[in-house]
Amino acid sequence: MEEVQDSQTPSSIGQEDENEVITESSAFVKGEPSQEFSSNPPKVDSEVEVLHEKVTKQIIKEGHGQKPSKYSTCFFHYKAWSEKTQHKFEDTWQEQRPTEMVLGKEKKEMTGLGIGVASMKAGERALLRVDWELGYGEEGSFSFPNVPPMADLVYEIELIGFDETKEGKARSDMTVEERIGAADRRKMDGNVLYQEEKLEEAMQQYEMAIAYMGDDFMFQLFGKYRDMALAVKNPCHLNTAACLIKLNRYEEAIGQCSIVLGEDENNVKALFRRGKARAALGQTDAAREDFVKARKYAPHDKAIAKELRLLAEHDKAVYQKQKEIYKGIFGPRPEPVPKRKNWLTLIWQWLLSVFYRLATLFKRESHKSD
Fold first, then answer.
1. Separation between Cα atoms, residue 89 and residue 134, nearest integer Å
2. Full-prediction pTM beyond 0.85?
3. Which residues cross the membrane (predicted)?
4. Looking at residue 14, what DSSP letter applies?
């Protein structure tokens, strides 16, 4: 049975601490955006909504939550293109207060984006078109991102969620401990949703938790603070992987586990879940490699032993099937057919042998007479 347990010192894959959910009975984050995002703006057939005389919006995916309020901090992921050059900006996680952006208290180039985000609901994905006046202006940007002058912009945005004044301050104003604490609360909310089988909602909570600990933030941490952050961040990745496995989204689950293994190459739970996902995709050799490595660090774990046994049974079944297929193709080896005797040939061979013998005797007698 899958649940979040209270044990602080798990002794096996099947016994986990309160940070993590259990998925052994069954088998996003900076740099890991939704797989739905493509390298070019998608074609959208929905109606065009005019948010501003210079900002229009089309919905790609309906949201299921509320709109951000005046005081909410938003977590969203976006990709952007310049319509003039079709140049794609780098993927960027943002955390902003959209109402403030609309009022011009944030950077000018974020104004059009802020208008769009303020109109969205949690879970919604949309395509925004922003005129250059509310984008990067007449001069554009020649640093990062590189945007041509007077470039109209296209934003593909996914609003992950937002805080309704829950944290009390913007992420950028928080101390290290406050950011880790806020992330931990998100993680615990995600665990509750997971137990209720609300997997998509749970993943959103884990995703927002990880947003508190982006690459720029983690790069600045050392010692105990980095350990504190990883103690929250890694379980969020593993829990996201657990959700993805239950949703049969195995490639994404592998990506989440690989992020954890990038920090801790011997993480047993990450190895186990990546092995589960790989096995489900038919990548048996890679799955076996993960399970064998996990068993090295948890030699008595029954869940790992079970998965290795299942792989062995799978390999045996595949071998037997291939054996039957090849047997059917080539069939049993044919018995040699005895050659029919040809009496005329035998008589002719006998006559030749007699002639050869007589000729030999004649030659011998000739030599003697000489």
1. 17
2. no
3. none
4. T
